[in-house]
């Protein structure tokens, strides 16, 4: 509807299951348990996204293949994945957005997840979280860490809790700005 109303650029939206393993539907509870190496899960998902999903989409559809023609965004676990993968790959994604990111899974140890975020200074970064979301403290903590490393980004605490309504509203707010010229 936004594309038809000329409120957003035409785009292809790809929504892969974020667990990163072929048998994720049966192993999801195990993968989310406290003893699971979440970095390995994130690595598997990121590798699959970059090495399998992107090439598949580019083979099947006429797409832009430059960073300005790609964005990565997600809600909850997907928000933390989008930020970790997106910030580590400014050569692939010009826009990175996290909605109610589940950064709690990072345990306040961001270097193993994000590495050298200083290379992300060219990206357009958006982070938002619902005001009544239990993840507000971890989102604030992460944004402080990112600012200390010199990243410029928008951070908004918006109405709502940890719900897809917040994710949908934030996506609707992001879409008009995707794939258009923008000032940093």
The helix fraction, in percent, is 25-40%
Q: Which class of secondary structure composition applies to the elements?
A: alpha/beta
The neighbouring-strand order within the major sheet is 1-2-3-4
The main β sheet shows up as: 4 strands, parallel
Quaternary organization: single chain
C-alpha Rg (nearest Å): 16 Å
What's the rounded overall pLDDT mean?
A: 87
For the secondary structure, the number of strands is: 4
Query: How much of the polypeptide forms β-strand, as a percent range?
Result: 5-15%
N-C termini distance: 28 Å
Number of helices: 6
Shape: globular
Low-confidence stretches: none
N-to-C order of helices and strands: HHEHEHEHEH
């Amino acid at each position: 509807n936004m594309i038809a109303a000329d409120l957003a650029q035409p785009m292809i939206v790809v929504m892969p299951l974020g667990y990163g393993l072929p048998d994720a539907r049966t192993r999801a509870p195990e993968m989310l348990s406290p003893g699971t190496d979440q970095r390995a899960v994130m690595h598997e998902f990121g590798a699959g996204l970059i090495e399998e999903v992107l090439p598949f989409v580019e083979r099947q559809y006429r797409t832009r293949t430059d960073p300005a023609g790609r964005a990565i965004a997600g809600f909850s676990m997907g928000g933390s994945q989008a930020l970790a993968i997106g910030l580590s790959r400014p050569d692939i994604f010009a826009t990175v957005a996290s909605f109610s990111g589940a950064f709690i899974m990072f345990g306040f140890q961001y270097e193993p997840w994000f590495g050298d975020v200083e290379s992300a200074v060219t990206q357009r970064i958006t982070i938002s979280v619902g005001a009544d979301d239990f993840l507000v403290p971890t989102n604030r903590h992460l944004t402080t860490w990112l600012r200390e490393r010199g990243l410029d980004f928008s951070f908004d605490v918006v109405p709502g809790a940890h719900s897809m309504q917040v994710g949908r509203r934030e996506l609707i707010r992001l879409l008009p700005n995707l794939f258009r010229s923008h000032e940093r």
